[in-house]
Design goal:
The chain has two domains: 110 residues, no CATH class; 101 residues, Immunoglobulin-like (Sandwich). It is built from one helix and 16 strands. The strands form five sheets. The protein has a four-stranded mixed beta sheet with strand order 9-16-15-12, with no helix packed on it. A four-stranded antiparallel beta sheet has the order 10-11-14-13, with no helix packed on it.
Length: 222
């Protein structure tokens, strides 16, 4: 996606408002599965809150698994998405691309985009850039979640939180003070849970973004 100055589109979880892109490959030929990879997004401030997404330019790499690896693939995409400046405009697109397995002049651009996809990591894995702790405070109403992220000094760090299903709508975490030395602390209200959902034991997806890369960690709320 190439976006005009001042316009944005959204990550898989858009934050306080917005519409994420929806990729439909159902009409493809010789395709067993398609996995959309999401490059690390950015926090975008707007009136009344924050959205999560992209400006200027973004490439979404795809991992395509054919039904029969000896035959070519025809990838057919139907895309529903939104682009926003002051107001959001719903949009749709379609594309068809034969995949024969040969090299392409765009291989370098795809490799660059894939390098921007958050790497899967474990909670408190001991690395210099890691999500150290996730703590739920049950003494407040609504309950709060505190996340401490270890990161290089002076590096600009951001954090995004998703629930275990798309029906969760968690607030965008806010940087706060009080973290141990060498760490950054973020907090968000445990709000936006779907009806009947319980916080205890829920597995959150936490994405930490730094200038040199991004990580994605699954963490259960105790």
């Amino acid at each position: 996606m190439n976006l005009a100055p001042g316009w944005k589109t959204y990550w898989r979880y858009p934050g306080d408002s917005g519409v994420p892109p929806r990729f439909d490959f159902a009409r493809s030929e010789n395709v067993k599965s398609v996995t959309v990879l999401w490059p690390a997004p950015h926090r975008i401030e707007e009136a009344g809150g924050f959205t999560i997404g992209y400006k200027e330019h973004v490439v979404f790499p795809l991992h395509v698994v054919p039904q029969d690896k000896t035959k070519p693939v025809v990838l057919r995409l139907k895309l529903d998405y939104a682009v926003c400046e002051k107001l959001c405009v719903p949009a749709e697109g379609s594309a068809e691309l034969p995949l024969t397995g040969t090299k392409s002049s765009l291989d370098g651009a795809l490799a660059t985009a894939e390098a921007q996809v958050p790497k899967l990591a474990a909670l408190n894995d001991g690395k210099a850039f890691a999500i150290r702790t996730v703590r739920r405070d049950t003494a407040t109403t609504p309950q709060k979640v505190f996340v401490d992220v270890a990161a290089p000094e002076n590096a600009k760090i951001d954090l995004f939180a998703e629930g275990p299903t798309e029906s969760w709508a968690l607030p965008v975490p806010t940087p706060i003070s009080g973290a141990p030395a060498g760490q950054r602390r973020f907090a968000f209200d445990l709000d936006g849970l779907p009806s009947g959902a319980k916080a205890e034991g829920a597995e959150l997806i936490l994405t930490a973004v730094a200038p040199e890369g991004a990580i994605e960690v699954k963490a259960k709320l105790d």
